[in-house]
Amino acid sequence: MSDTKKVRVRFAPSPTGGLHLGGVRTALFNYLFARKHKGDFVLRIEDTDQNRYVEGAEQYIIDCLTWCGLTPDEGPHAGGPFAPYRQSERKENYRQYAEQLVRDGYAYYAFDTPEELEAQRQQTPNFRYGHGNRNFLRNSINLSETEVNSLLGQKTPHVIRIKMPADETLSFQDLIRGSVSFDTNLVDDKVLLKADGMPTYHLAVVVDDYLMKITHAFRGEEWLPSAPVHILLWAYLGWKKDMPEWVHLPLILKPDGNGKLSKRDGDRLGFPVYAMNWKDPKTGDLTKGFREMGYLPEAFVNMLALLGWNDGTEQEIFTMDELIEKFSIERVSKAGAKFDFEKAKWFNHEYIKKSSLSNLKPAILTILNGRGLSVPDDDYFDKVLALVQDRLTFLQDFWDQSSFFFEQPKEYDLNAVKPKWTEDKTEYFNVLISQYANMKTWTAIELETLFKQLAEEKSIKIGELMLPFRIMLVGGKFGPAVFDIAALLGQGETIKRIEKALVEFNS
Asked: Are 392 and 401 in contact (CB under 8 A)?
């Protein structure tokens, strides 16, 4: 890394839909690297493909970054010295560089119509526009200067393509992969400027990285095949000494390691692959996200950081400050990282366990309100949350783990009780009701002591009474310590539930 340049990195997503967790990890690694080196983290919206642009996607991307705590220093909503940060608003910047490449002999005008190109594809399997056939197609290499000027003067639709050299090997250093080489014969003449005047990704990313003084380009390894085009553009435009250092990140793989993780995999296996819920404005389809599932942003960031990176120790739980301090490109793996949803759940469970009630409460209240439920008593809610906190994998689990604190059981797991139910147990609980009704103070310890004393007097094993008591209070075989539940429910409610359950158990 250069000591003379201030580190500047960019996260440059396209506003075409939901933000895949692979995209968020790219943003995270950019952010960690920038913060570690006291540099700038830039958000640039790459919206040159207007056919794929989706309304609302840009704001969604910004909302995802905000939720994760990855706040850009510059971007379309933050402003900055290199504005604008949407490529669609920089359209006028690109043509001059494309025309410069044509003048210098590194690119050319191509006037082939879509129909002509389709005919070529029909005639030639795996048709690629390049050095092997460019001399026979309708472009400024094959046409005379007079013909070219006439077509341009008539505003004939055309694109500008890079002129890839033949029989060359292009090499560059990647900070993760080391030396990477490409045979230029295998790379086609990519379009740089489209007929509508918009640049393609290839031209725009190079021009904007140069103009925005980007020092390190983090992107997924799926972009490696584009690298030779970009390296040539840096050289052809005379900017080679300013080219950023390349960092091609490993893929996030399916749980079985067989291919890149996709939204379809998440749908098939029952877990989200987007950071937040995404609703397609055209189809109305809703794709669920980690946030709405009840994932804490700190856990999400921690989990993503360890998909393809580790600090060389056994440590797995990191604060953001620790990630910033310990992050290094040298510890990023070349190999793809398998996504393990069970491990992802573990991270969230660990973070929920150690979170403060004040941190968890707003999100859980939002979830309850979304179910049409309200919890008016703050003190009671806090006590319930404290009891079930360690049992939550996701914040969404709160209601399943605590509903019995807010409403009586609607049904009972009678199969767990009836086969071993006896008259002696009915008598035990009737006596317990009268003794509980006479208690002056109501604590878990006192409730348990009295419960066990009575069992001893009646010569009934404690184990045969605890499960029925739990099912009386909550309806099933779940929940925190049963005497903690009774203590929080209160004297009147506990007695009421025992009485109601006895009717069910004896029917």
From this structure: yes
**Domains in the chain, CATH or no CATH each:** 89-249 (3.90.800.10), 414-505 (1.10.10.350)
**Residue among 106, 52, 51 at smallest CA distance from 229:** 106
Cross-strand bridge partners of residue 364:
none
| 8 A C-beta contact, residue 278 and residue 357 | no
Catalytic one of 5, 263, 338, 500: 263
141 within 8 A of 277, measured Cβ to Cβ: no
Q: Is residue 452 annotated as a catalytic residue, yes or no?
A: no
Helix (H, G, I), strand (E, B) or coil at 274: strand
Considering the entire predicted model, what is its pTM? 0.91
**Closest by CA position to 23, among listed 46, 1, 7, 53:** 46
Which phi and psi angles does 440 have, rounded to 5°?
A: -85, -35
Q: How many residues does the chain have?
A: 507
Q: How far apart are CA 344 and CA 339, in angstroms?
A: 8
Which one, of 47, 191, 199, 200, lies nearest residue 114 by Cα? 191
Residue pair 357/382 in contact by the 8 Å Cβ criterion: yes
User: In the beta sheet, which residues pair with residue 169?
Assistant: 183
* Residue 4 clears pLDDT 70, i.e. is over it: no
pLDDT digits 0-9 by tens, 57-104: 999 999 999 999 999 999 999 999 999 999 999 998 899 999 999 999
pLDDT in tens, 244-270: 999 999 999 999 999 999 999 999 999
Q: How far apart are CA 43 and CA 84, in angstroms?
A: 11
Decide if 38 contacts 245 (C-beta within 8 A): no
The residues with which 42 forms a beta bridge, in sequence order, are 10, 74
Q: Residue 483: enclosing H or E segment and its boundaries?
A: helix 482-489
**CA distances, 188 to each of 126, 136, 164, 240, 355 (Å):** 11, 15, 7, 21, 53
